[in-house]
Amino acid sequence: MPRHPERVNLTEKFRLIQEHWRPKVVGELNGQEIKLVKFKGEFIWHHHANEDELFLVWRGRFRIEFHDRIVELSEGEFLIVPHGVEHRTVADEEVEVLLFEPASTRNTGNVEDEKLTAPIGDRLQL
Amino acid sequence: MPRHPERVNLTEKFRLIQEHWRPKVVGELNGQEIKLVKFKGEFIWHHHANEDELFLVWRGRFRIEFHDRIVELSEGEFLIVPHGVEHRTVADEEVEVLLFEPASTRNTGNVEDEKLTAPIGDRLQL
C-alpha cells in the first residue's frame, strides 16, 4: 500500500483497456482489489467458491444471468454476486464495469477456460 | 449475504439520503461494505488505525486534505487512503461519494466527535 495515494480517473483508465474480459487492477485495499473490465459478448457459466463479487456499471449495460433469473444492469447500478452462486455475464454491446472483489480472484472462478481465464493481478500498464 | 442478490441503483439510493457525513450501507461483501454518503463542509482530521478507505465521487467534487498535500476529486475519480494516514475531507458544495471499506469502519476513525461520529452499520431505510 503506497503511503502517497494517487487519484484514479475511471474514464481515463477505461480508455487504456482494449481487450474484453480481462480485468485490470487499478487499486487495492484491505486485501481487496478494484478492477476495471470491458465486457462484450457472452462469458461462461462459473461460480467463485469463496469470493463475493461486486459488479458496478460505469458506461453501458449488461446482464447477469443466474439459473433462475436474469438481472439487467445499467449505468450507476451494481449487484453483488455471493460466493457459490453460479452466474454468467452477457453484454450485447461493449460495457465498462468496475469490480470489487478479493485480491487474486480468478475471473472464471471454478472454471479454467483457455480463452477466457484471465491473468490474476494484471495491472494497467501506465 | 442474501442468496438472491438485488440490483442497487446509486442515483436512487443517494436521493434517499438527506444528512451530510452519515454513511449508509448499501451492500456488503467479503467483510467489506459499500456505503453512500453526502459531504458538505469540512470534516475533522482523523485516521483509521487498521482500515484502508476508498472514496469514489459519484456526483460533484470535493478534496481530501493530507498534512503534506491536497487531492481534488471530481466525478468518476477515486482515491484510497491507506490506514494510519491522517486526512480530512472538505466539500465546498454538496458531493455524493461511494465508500468501500471494511464493515464496522467508524467514519471519524480514531476520533470520537459528538456531532460528526456517525452510527456504524447504518442502513438506508428502504
Quick summary:
Two copies of one chain form a homodimer. Chain A is mainly beta and 126 residues long.
Mind explaining what this structure looks like?
Two copies of one chain form a homodimer. By secondary structure, chain A is mainly beta. Chain A has one helix and eight strands; from the N terminus they run βαβββββββ. In chain A, strand 5 and strand 6 form a beta hairpin. The radius of gyration of chain A is 14 Å and the shape is globular. At the A-B interface, strand 1, strand 2, strand 4, strand 6 and strand 7 of A face strand 1, strand 2, strand 4, strand 6 and strand 7 of B.
Number of strands of chain A: 8
Name the assembly state.
Answer: homodimer
Find the structural class of chain A using helix and strand composition.
Answer: mainly beta
| Gyration radius over CA of chain A | 14 Å
**CA-CA gap between termini of chain A:** 18 Å
Order of helices and strands of chain A: EHEEEEEEE
Return residue spans of chain A where pLDDT drops below 50 for at least 5 consecutive residues: none
Instruction: Summarize the amount of helix of chain A as a percent range.
Output: under 10%
How large is the share of residues in beta strands of chain A?
A: 35-45%
> Helical region count of chain A?
1
Q: What is the arithmetic mean of pLDDT of chain A?
A: 94
- Report the principal-axis shape of chain A: globular
Question: Which two chains form the greatest contact, residue counts included?
Answer: A-B, 36 and 36 residues
